Amino acid sequence: MINTSKTKYMLACGSETDRTRLSSNNKVTIDGDELEIVEDFIYLGSLVTADNDTSREIRRRIISGSRAYFGLHKQLRSRRLSPRTKCNLYMTLIRPVVLYGHETWILLEEDLRTLGVFERRVLRTIFGGVQENGVWRRRMNHELARLYGEPSIQKVVKAGRIRWAGHVARMTDDCPAKQVFATNPVGTRRAGAQRAQRAR
Predict the structure, then answer these.
(1) What are the DSSP calls for 7-53, one per residue?
(2) Is the pTM of this model over 0.90?
(3) Rounded to whole angstroms, how far apart are CA atoms 119 and 112?
(4) 101 close to 46: Cβ distance less than 8 angstroms
């Protein structure tokens, strides 16, 4: 038995005919039970979409990270805490919120830039501005990286993806993840240019 109020139906990578047929009726009936048709849903805390658009999940994680950031804004600006303590707050309480599930993300260059912008916003709050000749200015990106002294959020994401790939490669051949990892995809690529250049 399934709980029909909690069970949804999503068509992933279906044909145009399938999508047209389903769009005319927003429910699927199985043994008399009606299941709602959805384009995305939350599974184990991550957003799963019909077109496998992980950029939406990354934006969603950044919004969650922003909530954690604003919740700690007072502490990150406090003069009673050292910059190193503030960085530790960021790395233990804010960054993990943003990076939840990052090992399986499909990264675009735009996604990496967005992650970098978020991290630099937090670091500018931690380290504050610079006064030169009586005039305050924001710290440059390279100044933030030097003061931070830790791998950037982009490097952490890339390292996590490589670590996960190695974990899958060491799985036994009968594991579903290993089978997908080792399978050669068949079929044709969609017409037109890529949506954006993928991060290497």
Answers:
(1) -EE---S--HHHHHHHHT-SEEEETTEEEEE-SEEEETTEEEETT--
(2) no
(3) 11
(4) yes
